[in-house]
Each structure stands twice: as structure tokens, then as C-alpha cells.
Amino acid sequence: MATTTDARDADIARAAAAIADPSRARVLRALLEGRALPASVLASEAGVSASTVSGHLAKLLEAGVVRVERHGRHRYYRLTGPAVGEALEALARIAPPLPVTSLRQSTHAHALRRARTCYDHVAGALGVALMAALLERGVLEGGDGRFHPETAEGDRLSAPGKDTTYRLTAPGRAELAAFGVDADELAGRRQLIRYCVDWTEQRHHLAGALGAALTDRLFALDWIRRGSRRRVINLTDAGRTGLERTFGVALDA
Predict the structure, then answer these.
(1) What is residue 159's three-state secondary structure?
(2) Out of 7, 67, 139, 144, which could bridge 134 as a Cys pair, Cβ 3.0 to 4.6 Å?
(3) How confident is the model at residue 33 (pLDDT cuts 50, 70, 90)?
(4) pLDDT, tens digit, for every residue of 186-206?
(5) In whole angstroms, what is the distance from residue 131 CA to residue 122 CA?
(6) What is the four-CA torsion angle of 198, 201, 204, 208, rounded to 10 degrees?
(7) Rounded to two decimals, what is the model's pTM?
(8) Bridge partner residues of 74 (DSSP)
């Protein structure tokens, strides 16, 4: 799934079978944050034993959906690349929601809508607000940050955008460098600017190398923190103040 293949020649059934199991789907949702996680954490996320999650991870590895990294004696698993995360986000668009059976689940769903990770960049209300602010300030240009379903050709909810070409302006490059994100250092790693059509907000949030670098900077400044539930991001008081002063991002409490 990490490589580009013509859909007519792709073994879609094999990839679908690898992620169809509910426990494996929970493992993949845990990895959507872009982090590498050990099997013990993934077992907890999936609600299965260590021996059971090992079997699930073996199937995901065989399908090329995840890869393993060795750090000393420990093994960590992560998605093979952004394409896998994009495919999972696209499936979320057509999948029925999981039934909410508790207040805790309802709170988690609300937190995901407010701020979450989409692979390695910020999504949800926070992500689209940041994108809108970058456009308003002239850091980016080329579009209005909105999803227009009536005229969309390649764009669709919960998927990488195709219809709009965003560009980093010269003043924007300088402003981001002052913030601690050097766009020149990101050149060549992957596409600098991409966007996703956010499935909860139905607007654009920033992706690509620039979106990932901005997210890393927000974490480094402790403006955002990872929540106790998967993919959830918590905006700190310093982050709320800093984002408003730096980029003009104003969010409801």
C-alpha cells in the first residue's frame, strides 16, 4: 500500500483482508498518529493479549501496511507511509461510525473533532483554523481553504486534496523561519505542501512536509500535547495564547 499502483492491477482484496479484522483495525487507528509503537501498547489499544497482537502484526507486515523498526532490543511498529494513513482516512469517510455506548466515548469523539492528528499533521477544528490563518496572513496562497463539493473534481472528504495548488509565499517563508520552521530544510524529503479535506470540518488542513514540520514545532513548544486517547491532541494554555499572537488563530474554549 505504500507504493503507487494502478488500481486496475492492485490486489485490493489482499490489502482489504489485512485490515478487515476489528483488532487489526484498532491497531491501525492507533498508528494513525504517525508514531512508532511497541507491540505491548498496540495490544492494549486493540484490547487483545500480547500473543494475539503478534499474529495480527505479522499479517499487517506481510500485507505491507506496517513496518517494524528495531531500537536496541525493542521492536516498534509504524505505518509504512502517508499513503496508508490516507487510505485509512478515506475508509473512515464511507464507514459507519462506531456506536457510542458511554460518555467517555462521546467525549473522545468530541475531542477528535476539536483537534487530532491525521498521520503526522494537525487535523480537526485546530487544523483547519491554522490553515485558514496561514491563508489570511498570506503565508500560503492559491486557494481559500474550503471544500467546494459542487465544483470538486478530485477532492473528496477524508482524503488528500487534488484540486487546489497551494504555494508558500516569500513573506510566508520568512515568517515560518522566524517561528522555527525552515522550509528550505524540508526540500526534497517529500512534497512540501499538500492538503487534506478534513472529514469532520469539511475544509482544508495543511499536510505534506510543511504540515508535519509545523506540527512538530507546536509539540516542541508545548503548545499542543498528545491526549490520553489515540490521535487526540490537547491545546495548552500557552498554545492557545501563542497561536493567537503568532498566527491569529482564535479557537473557542
Answers:
(1) strand
(2) 139
(3) low
(4) 977 689 999 999 877 889 999
(5) 10
(6) -40
(7) 0.65
(8) 71
